[in-house]
Amino acid sequence: MAKEHNAIELEKVVIKFAGDSGDGMQLTGSQFTDTSAFLGNDIATFPDFPAEIRAPQGTVAGVSGFQVHLGQVEIHTPGDLADVLIAMNPAALKANLDWIKPAGTIVIDTDTFDKRNLDKAGFENNPIEDGSLDSYNIIECPLTSLNKESIKDLGLDNKSMTRCKNMFALGIVYWMFNRPMAQTLSFLEKKFQGKDAIINANKKALQAGYNYADTIEALTSSYTVLPAHYEKGTYRNIAGNQGVAWGLLAAAQNSKREIFFGSYPITPASDILHELAKHKHFGAKIFQAEDEIAAICSALGASFAGSLAITSTSGPGLALKAETVGLAVMAELPLVIINVQRGGPSTGLPTKTEQSDLLQALYGRNGECPAIVVAASTPGNCFDYAYEAARLTMEHMTPVLLLTDGYLANGSAPWKIKKSGDMREINPPIITENKDNWTPYVRDPKTLARQWAIPGTPNLEHRLGGLEKEEITGNVSYDPENHEKMSRIRAEKIERVADNIPELKVDGQLSGDLLVVGWGGTYGHLLTAVNQLNIKGKSIGLAHFNYINPLPKNTEEIFANFKQIVVCELNLGQFVIHLRSKFPNYSFLQYNKISGLPFTIAQLYNVFNRILETETNG
Amino acid sequence: MAEKTTTELTSKDFASDQMVRWCPGCGDYAILKAMQNAMPILGRKKEDCVFIAGIGCSSRFPYYMDTYGFHTIHGRGPAIATGLKMANPELSVWQITGDGDGLSIGGNHFVHLMRRNIDLNIILFNNEIYGLTKGQYSPTSSQGLKTKSSPQGSIEVPFNPGELAMGAKSTFFARVPDTSPKLMTDIFVKAENHRGTSLVEILQNCVIFNDKVFGDITGKEVKDDAQIWLEHGQPMVFGKEKDKGIRLNGLKLEVVNLGESGITEADLLVHDAMDPDPTLHMMLVRMERPNFPVAMGVIRQVKTSTYNDRIMDQIKETAATSKYDSVDDLLNSGDTWTIN
């Protein structure tokens, strides 16, 4: 271990690891995150990687980044600009130059700054030499060669040695931020179990990086971020997709239903499938289908058989699943459809985040086909809203679409571990006996949900289908009046879900000049900007929606308390369309961004401030 | 596997109260009756049987069976049936489909279902036409067939469902014409008793849009010479006088006359439905009029593990090695920290 060194205490810091997509930056960033979370920092992360697994080496298109924001104060976003950038090659520097704070620190692997790599990255001159980086604190480190030198005696081939350089870089950052290496060392042992030479090389590279940072004069001091002030409890780090998977497992346990999960691989949703595939022993049936349609259809078949049935996808996959969502609406069977949104239309931006599938979730089906739509807003509450989606679909016997996004799915944050026993009860309306000449479409007078009669139950044999159902009996009916009646019942059934969901809570001011409205994964950014303006004495509140259809019952009441409302979304204005249709008497301003990236707090702060000032002046 | 005991149920107990709405004279009536007759023989309880269908004339089938049923989406029956059977392996699952539903819009699901060997039965009503949409050529229509969408004749090469099944690693394939109700019932029973995906192709006549398309196979006058009924372990003999047979000549099948040129039964192929190697089964399903009789009966029946067997093995394996007994164990696993 290196000697004790003096560390400067920071309230919060943003670090970005960036390199070629083969440089192992995601792993490096995750390791730094896990170690920092374990030390008790509040954290938000944002992995930003190219759609291609290995885009051309050395090009800006191939840069893979991982941004970590850690603090002893509450952290709601991965941060706008980085305090520290680790640039493993010229392309990584090029891609991130606009995203470093003035006077920020840049660690550069000078070994990679040769003519060829500079050309590939699009630099005309070497930025280290031409003075263009003078305003930054540059740490020039021949990282590639130092790494090789440190592990040259271990008998590895050149390629395997090069693969360790991310650990050398991590060692430098661990020293800079005064982090212990123990967790990463034990992680390496697990990850490369049975490959002792690789384990030793990685460990040695990590330690060599740490020692190097401790030795060189370029780093005059290191920094530390003290633990955040959390409420009492046991915490862990959790990513959005993991939260979704675990929320579903908790819902299955609490509803005493087996999980059936039918899915087809698609970025950025596949990690939900991967996570659940590890936990088959909870009785979970995990099915990788031949296509998106088979994925949702298998789930619907399992729902008929009495399982908590789920399918997961991203935008293009949701388009393929639409017809089956319609069948679930008609057959009135429970089904959770998870859509991890990404940039669209078409294949769009598979690895980037966006909120542009909202209207598809609400309306993207043939016929009058209403569905419940909910959205998670933090990596941690992906757990809660997956659980909610499962609860609502079973209690109301109609499909639920759960929207998350690439930013939530891959981002992680500390999460206060829930107890499954503390979650709301789930009471599916399962019928086990035929009393009073039961028919499949008799309804609960309160919720209008029909009952779940599961094959294998005697005397409840019945036939479901996509043809219009006769009220009560469920027989096929082409009667015009019946169709009108059933269409209205299906709509009313969704509206009544509002009685079974919590009211909306406002952050910041409860009434005043400006209400910021958001939904889904933008919560952290919106909240931080609103909090900053509140501190400046501005009259501003935030209404962030997790229940999209139906909306919470107190929505209009909240809107009425503010002079102006601005709806902020990562699309061209979809939630605002929904709100305008529900509340035609209100006028809504919009702030939209559609670049595949999250909002930045600075952008939001300026937009809100401008609206507030215009109003004051006007 | 659930115990199968005979009950006092009769075929009538399996008929629902819904009026059957196929065209008069449609082959589907015979199939429905044959199925209702098979049910009491199988001895499963009504509540344990589920009929899943896609879209098309044949797909109305579940409405007429007094069991659980689901009339679903065009082509997607196999995927829905897969989820159902995975969720509850104890159910007796029947997937009803047609040549359009199963081989065209649902072709992808059809082949993957067989590849996985999900333990259910596919009943394929092959009438070589789209009936419900009023007469367009289907993926099994013969080349040259004139229909509303092919006024100059179809230019497409048709699928042979048996060939497709062999390519898709099917473990059970049988063929039967709708004109042989008793044999149909017998085949349904064999299909259900096979563990794995059982594909039964029924040559079904559409009286309205493709009448007598199988006339040269099923016609009373020709059927004995035009069909060969394959029985596992039996020599391949056919013909009204049982005087014809199939033998292997080099790498080809050929029809021979018993008694001619000294040919006896000993020269004929003996049907081995249980051979895992599908080469001969493939040759048998390809036999066509007029040079060959069309193969009927159980052509392939191979024992191997089902998808559910393999799932249950993995569930048990994970349970034995897992560190977590409950979801709460999982939530608290790995690196955690406590704030007091």
- For the secondary structure, the number of strands of chain A is 25
CATH topology of the domain at 11-220 in chain B: Rossmann fold
CATH superfamily of the largest domain in chain A: Pyruvate-ferredoxin oxidoreductase, PFOR, domain III
Low-confidence stretches of chain A: none
Average of the residue pLDDT scores of chain A: 93
Question: For the CA atoms, what is the radius of gyration of chain B?
Answer: 23 Å
Q: Identify the quaternary structure here.
A: heterodimer
Question: Could you tell me the strand content of chain A as a percent range?
Answer: 15-25%
Class per helix and strand makeup of chain A: alpha/beta
Which features characterize this protein?
heterodimer; A: 618 residues; alpha/beta; Pyruvate-ferredoxin Oxidoreductase, domain 3; Rossmann fold; 6-stranded mixed β-sheet; 20 helices; B: 340 residues; 8-stranded mixed β-sheet; 3-stranded antiparallel β-sheet; 11 helices; globular; disordered N terminus
Structural overview:
- The complex is a heterodimer of chains A (618) and B (340).
- In chain A, 36% of the residues lie in helices and 22% in strands.
- With 618 residues, chain A is α/β, with parallel strands linked by helices.
- Chain A folds into 3 domains: 7-225, Pyruvate-ferredoxin oxidoreductase, PFOR, domain III (Pyruvate-ferredoxin Oxidoreductase, domain 3); 238-422, Rossmann fold; 506-617, Rossmann fold.
- In chain B, the strands form 2 sheets. Chain B has an 8-stranded mixed beta sheet with strand order 2-1-3-4-6-5-11-7, with helices on both faces. In chain B, strands 8-9-10 form a 3-stranded antiparallel beta sheet, with no helix packed on it.
- In chain B, helix 3 crosses helix 4 (107-116).
- The chains are: A alpha/beta (618), B alpha/beta (340).
- Chains A and B meet through helix 1, strand 9, helix 9, helix 11 and helix 12 of A and strand 2, helix 2, helix 4, helix 10 and helix 11 of B.
